[in-house]
Amino acid sequence: MTLVDLYAEYPAFEINVDREQARLLSHEVICFMHPLYWYSTTAILKEWQDLVLEHGFAYGVGAGALHGKLFFSALTAGGPEAAYGAAGYNHFTIRELLCLLEQMARLCGMAYLPPFALFGVRSAVERGRVPGHVDDWMRVLVALREDRFDVAATRSRSTLNADLATLIRGA
Fold this sequence. Notes:
Blueprint: H1 6-9, H2 17-25, E1 29-35, H3 43-52, E2 70-76, H4 94-97, H5 99-107, E3 111-112, E4 116-118, H6 130-145
Parallel strand pairs: 1-2, 2-3, 2-4
C-alpha cells in the first residue's frame, strides 16, 4: 500500500506525471482520500486527475494502463448522512454527487466502488463515531488486500459503509 499526500509532495502543484503514473501501474486498487469540497475533490486532486490520467495512458486508443483496477473514494463530508439523498438538503446521494469520478473510472476501464464516507465529520469526534469508522475502514482495506471484497455486491449501493459485513467474504 502506498499513501500519497499530494499537498506535501507537490506544494506548488508541480505534479510529477511520470512518477504518479508509475505509482498507478504498481497498484491494483486506487483510492482517492479527500474531504468533499463543494461536491467534489480538492483542487490538487483535480489537478492530479487532469495531468496524470492523460489520453494514451489512462484512456483512448492504445491506452488501458488502468484497465481492471478497482477505484473508489474514501471521504469526509460535513453534513449528516441523511442530508445526502432525495429527501435531504443536498438532494442527491453521495454516489450521485460523485458521478464524475465514477465516469472517470469507467473511461479508464476501472471497476468503480461506491465511496466509503464519514458523514457529519464536524461532530464525529464528540459523538464517538471515529473509532467505529476507522475499524470499518481497516476491514475494507484488509478485505481488498486479501481479495475477499465482493465488488459485484456494491453496484447498487450509495456507499460502502452500510452493512459492510455482507460485502466481505469470510467476515
